[in-house]
Each structure stands twice: as C-alpha cells, then as structure tokens.
Amino acid sequence: MQMNYDEQLMKIDEAGLMRTLRAVEPQESGSCYFQGQKMLNLASNDYLGLANDKALKQAFIQQFETNEDWCNFGASSSRLLTGNNKLYDEVEQLLCINYKAEAALFFNSGYHANMGILPALTDKGDLIVSDKLCHASIIDGIRLSNAEHVRFRHLDYDQLSSLLEKKRSKYKRVFIVVESVYSMDGDLVDLQKLIDLKEQYDCLLYVDEAHAVGVLGETGLGLCEQENVTEQIDLLIGTLGKAYASVGAFAIMNHTLKKLLVNKARTLIYTTALPPVNMAWTKFILERMPDLKSNRDQLQKLSAYMQTALLSKGYDVHNSHIMPVMTGSNKVAVQLSEHLHKEGFLVFPIRPPTVPVNTARIRLSLTADLQLSDLERLIQFIPDFKI
Ligand SMILES: Cc1ncc(COP(=O)(O)O)c(C=O)c1O
To answer: In this model, does residue 1 exceed pLDDT 80?
Structure first.
C-alpha cells in the first residue's frame, strides 16, 4: 500500500536518514561558519582551495571590469537559441587544446551532462555496462536511455570481462561507464585495464572525471592525463563545480559525437544556458589550471598524511583527497559528525541511498587550503575502526 507523505517522512526519520538544508558560509583558509560556529570545512569539493581565494577573485574582478560582455548575469535562452555567448566557444576551444581533442561540449552541470549524454547516444539494441558505485546522475542518465543496462561489481574487471564475453555479440553498441575517482570512496579506476577491454570487445568508454579534474595529472586534466590515456577515452566528463570552483561541466569527444549531442541531448537543448559572467569565471580558472601545481602538491601532501593516519586506525582508505571514515550504521555516522562539529570540524554523514545500505560513513574531503596541523588535530577525534 502506498504511504502518505507524513508516513514517508516518519520512516526516513526512524531509519536515521533525515536530510535537511542548512546554511554554510565559506571563509578563507579552509574554514566556514556553520550554525554560528567557525569550523574547518572538510565537507566541500573545493579540492584546490580556489573558491575562497581572495587574490584570485580580485584578479578576476579586475579583468571583469575591462570586459563589458562578461558583465551579463543571465543567458536568457538555451544554447541552441540566443544563449550561446561567445565565451562558450572560447571555453570549448581551450578544452580542445588542453585535451588535444577534436571536440568539447559544455553543459550546465555534471548532472545535466550525465543525464543528457547516454540517452542521446544509445538506443534499443545497445547495452550500457556500468560500475555498481556510479554516481546518481549517471544512474539517472542510464534510466532515461532505451538501451539495456547491466552493472558490474565495483572495480571488478574480471566480472566486467566475463559480462562482455557473454553479452557483447548480442548488442550493436556497448558503453562501459565508470568514474575515475569514486566520489564516496576515493578509490581510482584502472583506466588501462578498461581500455584493453574496450578494444578487445569493441566498446565505447565513458569516464566521469568529476572528482579528478583539477586535482590529478601534471596540468590538472585528470586521471587520463596522469595515466597518459586521454586519446583512448571516447567520452570524458569533467565538472566545474568541484576543484574548478565554478559551475558547469564539459564532455570531451570527437566531432561526430558532439554534432549528435547538439541535436539530441535534451539537457543541453531544453535548458537556459549559463550566464556570461559564469562562463567568464570558468574560462579564467581554466586558463590558470596548469599553473596550480603547488595547490595539487599541497593536496597530495595532505592526502598522504591522512591515509597513513587513518590506516593506522584500521580504516581501509586510499591515497586520495576523498577519505571515507566508515561507520556502517547510519546513526553512528550522524553521532560522529555531530561530535566532530563540536570539535570545530564540518563533516557530514553520508548514508543510503547515496551509498549502499550498511556502509554509512563520514566523507572527509581534503582541500589544498587546509594545513597539516589541521589534520593532526582532526585525527585525534576519529575513533578506531570498528564495525
Ligand atoms: C561522479 C559525479 N558526476 C557528476 C556529478 C554532478 O556534477 P555537478 O555537481 O556538476 O552536477 C557529481 C556530483 O557530485 C559526481 O560526484
């Protein structure tokens, strides 16, 4: 029987899964105000610490004042109508140069990209094979597609290989869909293994680099740059809302795929474009990204420290800017986050359906504007692993 809305809310609450919206005011040096208290912010995806960098903002504002066409706060229509301001072209050209790619296409967000691309490029008779821990936006894109869908266990390439062996010949096109750095676990995909499989079974490889762009690779292009495999990826998605401190997302691909997406991707066609002011900020950050190596190095130093510290407490974590402190129980995750708030650390409990049942956790998100001493203090308040 269908539950009414009050009953649904009661059930959510009983399961320790109630979510609420709370105001956070980010400050410099990795801190923020939350519920009237100044805290260190370990909950944002501002991995390079750019979002509250005063000098960077001032430099942008200076350029802004001399570029009248940037000073526009609404795009007024879709990119297919009058919303396609020339900054879109400049940003896409810059992305093509950086990735040495044929084409780049900009979307309003990573959610829009993942929701729009797969339904546009797949049809009946196609198959999508995705990692079990792919992000909600990828799952929703797959749901909108007419292709069949099957999942493989997280990072289990043997299972992926046997699925492809069994199923490949029955389908016209097959997409392998993965993330490069998993958003809730911080672990990395093995791109070379996937490229081998894609070639062996004649598939298309779709890699969401949302949590890797800006952070990984010599110039911040992502795991594909770090592994020197950019050209072998058919669709590479990067989001601007995380390390780039902006909003929007890009997809790197060939000319044909871009042309098709401009004609078929509903989340590109049927939504108002991003305003010029935002595209100008995106371009400004993109131009500086190769030079932000010291931010990437600082983040790497913090990640290495935190990995050692959490491993010594019994947690299974990777050398990554995303560190899950597993509690298993939803309620324990909530209690631990509240305890850390009292000690001045802003963290949030991550619970189902964002992560699988019984794998609730605190997600520590490291950013380059934190100091080693901040993490030395934080680690004292994290209990030893026990589930
Ligand atoms: C892997 C992945 N892809 C896409 C998105 C969505 O990106 P955006 O915030 O730009 O919508 C997220 C957001 O957290 C993500 O983790």
So the answer is: no
* CB contact set of 285 (below 8 Å; sequence gap of 6+): 50, 240, 244, 245, 246
List ligand 1's pocket residues with C-beta within 6 A.
Answer: 109-111, 114, 135, 137, 179, 183, 208, 210-211, 239, 241, 249
State the CATH class of domain 5-54+293-380: alpha beta
DSSP, res 313: T
Residue tagged 């099957």 (tokens)? 150
Rounded Cα distance, 26 and 275, in Å? 23
Q: Which pTM does this prediction carry?
A: 0.96
pLDDT, tens digit, for every residue of 195-220?
999 999 999 999 999 999 999 999 99
Tell me which architecture the domain covering 72-290 has in CATH. 3-Layer(aba) Sandwich (3.40)
For the chain, residues classed under CATH 3.40.640.10 are: 72-290
Q: Is the pLDDT of residue 86 over 90?
A: yes
